Automatic annotation (TrEMBL):
Organism ancestry: Bacteria, Pseudomonadati, Bacteroidota, Flavobacteriia, Flavobacteriales
Top-level division of the source organism's lineage: Bacteria
Record's keyword terms, sorted: Coiled coil
SMART domains for the chain: PASTA
Cell membrane in keyword set: no
InterPro entries, per database record: PASTA_dom
Recorded coiled-coil stretches: 197-238
Domain PASTA: 325-391
Protein name: PASTA domain-containing protein
Species in which this protein is naturally found: Wandonia haliotis
Length: 393
């Protein structure tokens, strides 16, 4: 995070005759990757060859805020200087400067952007540097070539000694334009990768949290199942192997088991795991006890010592009772939120997110613009909500 109070932009500008430029209005622009266009953020007048403008980071202007926030986060966006009105009669956008140095001045608490010294090129030489379809550079890092005329019978103009460097100057200018274009492409790729890595880290953290929660639910479920098994084992334990097991009314046996199942079911109401239908088969000796039947449960390890013809098999089919009026919730309005914010909102009310990304240049990159079910729809907990987020190719 970069902290500073002021921000400034400076450029020294001379005309084609190497004289300081005066009364020329210029814009400072930055490239907004979300909107895919250049945006004006500052304006000032060149006076006596110097363009200087300064602002504060607390500016509330809508167009400046994204730029200032990005700079404070350490993201160096493409910046350029352009005339507010065309200087020459060119078809492309006229660019004065794109290459700059920046540094922090702690004495004045100001972040300075210096575009150095530039010279406007003669209008008749602009065509040589119109190598791009969208813009043309009308200023150079070097003074323009000066020519002199030698008086003779043919009136043939003779170039000054600086003419021998014209080819080198043209080559340097072309290289500069190529490097500037490559920089813009690389910076755009870098920003895309940064956003992708950040989204991956957030997703990993969320998945780890969900996995930890599921592990805790599974452990609690295993403990409840173990308690149920212990109860069944207790009911089946041998009271006295030599004299036979204790007689238990079958209704009481069933009620006891059913009570244990209901206890386990209630303890897992908020868990991702639920008890399904249970099927129990118990070996017992059935005896008539007055008008009722009672069962003497057997330990499987001792069943071989008892006459098999006297052993019966009890079968119990148990379906855990379900809440007839499950809790419901209404889906909130999610438009305009990022995936992280949407996931947090849905988790807070017990719902799950199914994120889908779809190209939509009319919506800010990464923001939600459609959802299913619709806002206000009543839905049961743990249901899946599909939300469509905008992406910019």
């Amino acid at each position: 995070m970069i902290t500073f109070k002021y921000i400034s932009f400076t450029i020294k500008l001379n005309d084609a005759q190497n004289a300081p430029v005066n009364d020329l209005a210029l814009f400072v622009q930055y490239f907004n990757f979300s909107e895919q266009k250049w945006i004006n953020i500052y304006r000032s007048i060149v006076s006596n060859g110097t363009f200087f403008c300064r602002g504060t980071v607390s500016s509330t202007l809508k167009d400046r805020q994204p730029f200032l926030e990005a700079i404070q986060k350490g993201l160096m966006l493409p910046i350029r200087i352009v005339p507010t009105q065309k200087i020459y009669d060119s078809k492309q956008k006229e660019i004065i400067g794109m290459t700059f140095d920046h540094f922090y001045n702690p004495e004045n608490d100001i972040l300075e952007f210096d575009f150095g010294s530039m010279w406007l090129m003669p209008e008749n030489s602009i065509e040589k540097y119109a190598t791009y379809h969208d813009f043309v550079t009308i200023a150079s890092l070097y003074p323009p070539e000066l020519t002199s005329v030698k008086e003779n019978t043919d009136d043939i103009p003779i170039r000054s000694i600086d003419g021998q460097y014209e080819e080198q100057l043209n080559e340097c200018t072309t290289n500069l334009q190529t490097v500037t274009s490559q920089y813009e492409k690389l910076y755009s790729t870098h920003q895309t990768l940064m956003r992708s890595n950040q989204a991956t880290l957030i997703l990993n953290e969320e998945l780890e949290g969900q996995l930890s929660s599921l592990k805790n639910d599974l452990r609690d479920q295993e403990l409840q199942i173990q308690k149920l098994q212990d109860t069944i084992a207790t009911l089946s334990a041998e009271e006295n192997p030599t004299e036979g097991n204790k007689l238990i009314p079958i209704n009481s046996l069933y009620s006891n088991i059913l009570g244990q199942v209901e206890t386990v079911n209630k303890s897992t109401e908020n868990s991702a795991f639920k008890l399904s239908n249970l099927s129990l088969k118990l070996k017992a000796i059935i005896q008539k006890d007055g008008d009722n039947l009672s069962a003497s449960l057997l330990d499987s390890s001792l069943s071989d010592t008892i006459n098999g013809n006297s052993i019966s098999e009890l079968s119990f089919e148990i379906t855990p009772t379900q809440n007839q009026n499950p809790a419901t919730t209404k889906i909130p309005e999610l438009s305009g939120l990022t995936e992280t914010a949407v996931r947090r909102v849905l988790q807070s009310i017990g719902l799950r997110l199914n994120p889908v990304y779809q190209q939509n240049l009319n919506v800010v990159h990464g923001s939600a613009f459609k959802q299913s079910p619709e806002p206000g729809t009543t839905i049961q907990p743990n249901q899946l909500v599909t939300v469509i987020f905008s992406k910019h190719e």
